[in-house]
Amino acid sequence: MTTKLSFGDRLYRGEKSFNFVENRRRWYGLSAILMIASILVLGVRGLELGIEFKGGSEFVLNKSGLTVPEVRTAMGQADVPGDPIIQTVGDTKVRIQTGELTSAQSSKVLDVLVKTFGVNRADIDTRLIGPSWGQEITRKAATALVVFLIVIIIFLSIAFEPKMAIAAIIALFHDVFITIGIYALVGFEVTPATVIGFLTILGYSLYDTVVVFDKVRENTRGIAGGSRSTYSEAANLAVNQTLVRSINTSIVALLPVGAILFVGAGVLGAGTLKDLSLALLIGLAVGTYSSICVATPFLAAMREREPAMQALAKRVQNRSNKVASGQVVEAEVSVAGEAARGPRNQPKRQKSKASKGAKAKKKR
Length: 364
Description:
Blueprint: H1 7-13, H2 24-44, E1 48-49, H3 51-54, E2 56-62, H4 68-78, E3 85-89, E4 93-98, H5 103-117, E5 124-129, H6 131-159, H7 162-186, E6 189-190, H8 192-220, H9 231-241, H10 243-267, H11 271-303, H12 307-325, H13 330-341, H14 353-363
Parallel strand pairs: 1-6
Antiparallel strand pairs: 2-4, 2-5, 3-4
Helix pairs in contact: 1-9, 2-7, 2-11, 4-5, 6-7, 6-8, 7-8, 7-11, 8-9, 8-11, 9-11, 10-11
């Protein structure tokens, strides 16, 4: 009794295949467009840094029923420099972020808020952050990123091979760069929660890439010694064999992140959840794309330049040409025939006349 194979089973068996590796130029072009767009957005708009990085003052007004336009009108009476950032946090709080203020300017902002909205000073939480604090956070984030990349390069070089480490690192930079560009396009603030989201993206993208590379290594082990497929074909089979798993894992990860973004930012108005979830949502989607369409095709392109892989590709091409033209190699036929018949028995030797005569004398 036969059962109908699922789509994933057909991909794993090679009965159905998407040619990701051979279409590498198409994926490279798409990635190049996204990266160029990210460069343009970063050059024109730049990143909106939070006060944790650039320094400034923050006022959190604890009163329900306030709207952003009302608070912005009140802040106009305080004559603060620059354009303050005003956000609602849930239904009972409003957060106001400004540039660096002197003691007199900060006191004037408090007086305006108390007089306009009829609250006590105790209902307003004030936080002053200097620029040195932002520099320290930036330095620590950069240090963490460099250490992370060094450890990953060492791990991949030992566990797999140096060229796989290079391809994985290129995919990591691809993911982070595009995520930063989209973040700048949307205009969300870059906060410490955003940095945490970026570092999480690195871990997830690397995880998905390592899963694909492990299957590539399994399919290409000893391939140069003799195989009917090239390195690119074996690598493409590995991508197809892990395709369903990568998509399912990404969807399962994106659903809760999307819920956090919708509930945290849209319903609760929590700025920290918004900063973290947006970075994760973009990074998870881009990381899945890069593991399938960037990392593995780039690895195959590097390996195909090796002399052993070029010789393998020629042998596979010659064999394909002979099969297509109907030619059969005699050596393959003889080997196949001997394997089917098993070991041949040695032919019986004919006895000489002298030996026959000697046996006749003995009988007499």
